[in-house]
Amino acid sequence: MKNPESTELKVLPPLTKRQAECLSFLFDYFSERRYYPTQREITKRMNLKTNSAATFLEPLYKKGYLKKEPGRSRNINLTPSAIEKLKLMGKIKKE
Fold first, then answer.
1. What's the rounded mean pLDDT across residues 68-90?
2. What number does CATH give the domain 17-88?
C-alpha cells in the first residue's frame, strides 16, 4: 500500500542545448507578454534561415514539454513537465 503523502519521482526526458534554448525562449516570451510566440518568431529567435521552428518544437511535443491547443494561431503551451525542467535549469525559482 502506497503512502498518500509519498512523492513519485518523475524522470524528465533530456534536452539538447538548442531544445533547452527554445524552451527557455518560450518561457521568457510568455512571461513578458502573457501569450506564446508564433513559429515565425521562434524561427527568428533561433536564427534559422527558413520557417523550420518545427525542428525544435516537435521534439519538445514528443518529450512532453509542450502541448498544442487546437483551433488557435498561437497554440503552443508549456506543460507541467516543462515548468519542472525549467526549474531544474535554473530558469524558475523553486518553491
1. 90
2. 1.10.10.10
